[in-house]
Amino acid sequence: MTQPTLIRRGHAGMSALPEPLPAALALAASGVPVLPLRRGKVPFGNCPTCADNACGGRPNMKAPGPCQCPGVCHAWAAATTDPTVIVSPPWAAAWRRAVCVAYHPGAAGLTVVDLDDTDAVAWARETLPATRTVATTRGEHWIYRGTMTSHNAVRPGVDIKSSMSYARYLGPGTGHLADLPDAVRALVDKKPSTARPVPYAGAVPVGPGGGECPHRTPAYLERGIAMAEQRITEASSTIHATVYRTFLAVLSTHGRCGCLTAAHVARLFTAAQTKGETLRHCTDAWTNARTTLGL
């Protein structure tokens, strides 16, 4: 198997990220399955045919299934190396709206150790064998040859992206590709942490208020928060994306009239942290959702 473009040297002049579609075609040509990410750097949502698992397969991007949807609405499970699919409708329309390219590491025989901050990077340099690295906004992606189960928050600031997951393409990086070490596999194999989630103690940003409240009864808001908690709790993969989409849905319905309280936000953050999200990830997802909605 030839080395994917993702990890091959020789991409001169790529200090800035290329346009999504040309980059996607280059990656696909080297055997890396790609998918577009929309605003918020998340996958495109299910189309009406596939919503609520009506298609019979790949619900919430949990696993490949019988769905024959030709669109890009199943996140990592829709990732492809077929250039005809990539440039044809409905994918073509998605690329026009895309803000960046993602890829399915596991399908390319890779594992990405996502180091979210400088502390996580320092830990990796002391603990893990050197490999190809790609700079991110706050940290680095360390890319290894080999696949494993994806898992979030295996330690502070560290996520594992491989099978049934996606990673953003941020350039070819530097260094030589190394085999996936046992030290990385052990991060997922260890027993789950029994640490309690850190309570959310920040101020709740709300709309100006004073307008007519669209919520008919307090039970309407309560039901919405309970459904959001359930959606996060039942997610088995793409936790980052699930948390962001859930926060976005809650804020789009309840974020403009001033009904949300600190207690409501704390419930959402607790559900996300119980699934392995850090307080920082929760805060970033909440802020990004508010920005997307113009709150």
Description:
The protein has 295 residues and is α+β, with helices and mostly antiparallel strands. Helix content is 34%, strand content 14%. It has helices at residues 20-29, 83-87, 91-97, 118-127, 182-189, 218-234, 239-254, 262-274, 279-293, and strands at 34-38, 42-43, 100-103, 110-115, 132-135, 140-145, 151-155, 158-161, 167-168, 178-179. The strands form 2 sheets. Strands 4, 5, 6, 7, 8 and 10 form a 6-stranded mixed β-sheet that branches. A 4-stranded antiparallel β-sheet has the order 2-1-3-9. Strand 5 (132-135) and strand 6 (140-145) form a beta hairpin.
Strand-helix topology:
Elements: H1 20-29, E1 34-38, E2 42-43, H2 83-87, H3 91-97, E3 100-103, E4 110-115, H4 118-127, E5 132-135, E6 140-145, E7 151-155, E8 158-161, E9 167-168, E10 178-179, H5 182-189, H6 218-234, H7 239-254, H8 262-274, H9 279-293
Parallel strand pairs: 6-10
Antiparallel strand pairs: 1-2, 1-3, 3-9, 4-6, 4-8, 5-6, 7-8
Helix pairs in contact: 6-7, 6-8, 7-9
Question: What fraction strand?
Answer: 5-15%
User: What's the number of helices?
Assistant: 9
Given as residue ranges, the uncertain stretches (5+ residues, pLDDT < 50) are 7-15, 59-64, 191-195, 206-211
Q: Average pLDDT, to the nearest integer?
A: 80
Helix/strand-derived category reads alpha+beta
Estimate the helix proportion, in percent: 25-40%
The radius of gyration computed from the alpha-carbon positions, rounded to a whole number of angstroms, is 20 Å
Sheet with the most strands, sense and barrel status: 6 strands, mixed
- Taken from the alpha-carbon principal axes, the silhouette is globular
> How do the helices and strands follow one another from N- to C-terminus?
HEEHHEEHEEEEEEHHHHH
List how many beta strands DSSP finds.
10
